[in-house]
Amino acid sequence: KEVSKIRRTSILRGLNLAVFFISSKLILLVAFVVFVLGVKGDLTPEKVFVCMALFNNLRLSMTLFFPYAIAQGAESIISLKRIQKFLLLEEQQETSHLDVSNLRPKLSQCGIWMQKVIASWDKEGDSTLRNVTLTVKPGELLAVVGPVGCGKTSLLMSILGELPIVSGEVKVRGKVAYASQEPWVFGGSVKQNVIFGSAPDDNKYKTVLNVCALDK
């Protein structure tokens, strides 16, 4: 389904470029034929050059900039809808399923417990997680594997408290670090991603580089 939409978009872009390159010649040909045969006018060099200059100026605006503006406008609407959907999500609440009372516990006190957890992104939709029971002991390395769409990311989101819990209990003791499979960076330099539009702070910048092992 996604490939078919990409193919359709590519075809429309190709047609738009084709119209851009042939429109001025085709319009000039039709205009001159109608002027000579229909109106019975005299086709002089002055009229030809004026028409060519006029249609060339219109071609750039009508066959390139105007479709480009429509495409960018559609993408802007989609982006705004995604931002609106994100802003309308329920605020994350500190409930009993997430215990962050001790910010620096001992290793023996760390761990993750999940008991018969049912979670869903949409209250009216199907459950994303169903009756999940999980225990991660201190110092234990746990790998969750499975096919695409089986709920691996949803499991992590429930541990982070980002996925609403319908029933069951989730307890996390200790600090949680999450590394997403998709980098949370934008197109720019490392420094721009670190300061993120804020006033430059050399000490903070060097600290971030050191923590991320980017100064080696």
TrEMBL record:
Q: One GO molecular-function annotation for this sequence?
A: ATP hydrolysis activity
Q: Which domain of life is it from?
A: Eukaryota
Q: Which Gene3D superfamilies match?
A: ABC transporter type 1, transmembrane domain (1.20.1560.10), P-loop containing nucleotide triphosphate hydrolases (3.40.50.300)
Q: Which residues form the ABC transporter domain?
A: 129-200
Q: What is its main location?
A: membrane
**Compartments reported by the entry:** Membrane
What's this protein's name? Answer: Multidrug resistance-associated protein 4
Identify the coding gene. Answer: ABCC4_1
